[in-house]
Specification:
The protein has helices at 13-21, 31-34, 51-64, 168-173, 221-234, 333-339, and strands at residues 47-49, 74-76, 94-100, 105-111, 115-121, 125-129, 132-135, 141-144, 150-154, 160-166, 179-181, 200-202, 218-219, 241-245, 259-265, 270-276, 280-286, 289-293, 296-300, 305-308, 312-318, 325-331. It is of the alpha+beta class. The longest helix has 14 residues, at 51-64. The structure holds 2,5-dihydroxybenzoic acid.
């Protein structure tokens, strides 16, 4: 049984003031909020961001604010449960839709938060990471891990949009967030180009510790999509068709804090994802999917994004009876595993 504890109002005001003068606070009025019974009370709210809705506003930002005045022209997908001004999707996840127009250049910098880009639309842009030029095509995942120089350029003739996923809220909370500007990077080639297929593994599969740098920076969607279709065909009874983006040599998650995977729903498939401690983000690459989080239902169209708090089961349904659907998932599971907080409640 959880007893009701004393409140701040139950204490004499001059006592509370005497505490404050010495930078002291009584624990018991806040104990239940800090340690709620049975499960956390997340501020993260299930939230849907429609691409159709945000796209005109992002293009308008392209007219209103030149790239020189933005450096990164981004509309942040903010979770109202945290307060929009905090610009976070969950406790550890930041999401932004970034626009780069033909000929524009987002200059080189590096920073402590890890970032990835999931390319949403347009041709001809590229991100240079640690001197390696990564072309950006729809559905590609491009890593910019902590501390690596990165800049974005665009040789095409149409707007290019991508989804940025960063662990910025966590790194900022840790008071460890900063950036450094730098000159345009000189390009380098790999002596032996990495094999992109080695960066995709069936989930869950986390093997050895990773200190091997980042040999693979671009995970082409063409490879991931083909690998998902092959898995579905090879294992017709397998329920979860999902591949984790991993370090190609160690099999560890591709980045340290957030985890990334691609999931395929067969035509008409309904899939229940167990209630696990990490919060999750779902971004629809292809198809039509309904996402149900507790009593909320989001009909995702292509390029839509939504999030779900941790400790919550999520139901994914392919709304097409004839075509597969492909979902990009970002979650906080590497962080929870490292901290020993990871839970699967079924
Ligand atoms: O493209 O480097 O959405 O530094 C936020 C911070 C994108 C980027 C964001 C960044 C970037």
């Amino acid at each position: 049984m959880t007893t009701t504890l004393g409140r701040l109002e139950d204490l004499p005001p001059d006592y509370v003031q005497a505490l404050a003068r010495q930078n002291l606070v009584p624990l018991w009025p806040s104990l239940r909020a800090l340690l709620p019974p049975d499960k956390p009370r997340p501020a993260t709210r299930a939230t849907h961001w429609s691409y159709e809705g945000l796209r005109p506003l992002l293009l308008q930002a392209g007219e209103l604010t030149p790239i020189e005045k933005a450096e990164r022209r981004v509309l942040v997908l903010a979770n109202p449960g945290h307060g929009l001004e905090r610009m976070q999707a969950s406790a550890a996840i930041y999401l932004g839709m970034q626009l780069l127009l033909p000929g524009e250049w987002a200059p080189a910098h590096r920073h402590t938060p890890n970032a990835v880009r999931m390319v949403v639309e347009g041709e001809g842009a590229y991100t240079t990471v640690d001197g390696r030029k990564c072309p950006m095509q729809r559905g590609d995942l491009i890593l910019t891990p902590t501390g690596l120089w990165h800049e974005h350029g665009h040789d095409g003739d149409q707007p290019v949009v991508w989804l940025d996923v960063l662990d910025l809220p966590l790194v900022h909370y840790l008071e460890a967030s900063y950036h450094v500007d730098g000159p345009r990077q000189a390009l380098r080639e790999f002596a032996i180009p990495p094999d992109p297929q080695a960066g995709l593994r069936p989930t869950p599969m986390f093997e050895r510790a990773c200190s091997a740098g980042y040999p693979l920076l671009r995970y082409p969607w063409e490879e991931a999509r083909a690998a998902l279709l092959a898995q579905a065909q090879a294992e017709p009874h397998r329920e979860v068709i999902q591949l984790a983006y991993v370090h190609p040599e160690t099999g560890e998650p591709a980045q340290n804090i957030l985890g990334f995977s691609a999931l395929m729903l067969r035509p008409g498939q309904q899939l229940r994802l167990a209630a696990r401690s990490p919060a999750q983000v779902f971004h629809l690459i292809e198809g039509a999917v309904e996402v149900q989080v507790e009593d909320q239902r989001f009909a995702l169209a292509e390029a839509d994004t939504c999030c779900a708090p941790g400790y919550t089961a999520v139901q994914l349904s392919n709304r097409s009876a004839t075509a597969p659907a492909f979902v990009f998932i970002a979650d906080e599971s590497p962080l929870h595993r490292k901290l020993g907080l990871y839970e699967d409640r079924g």
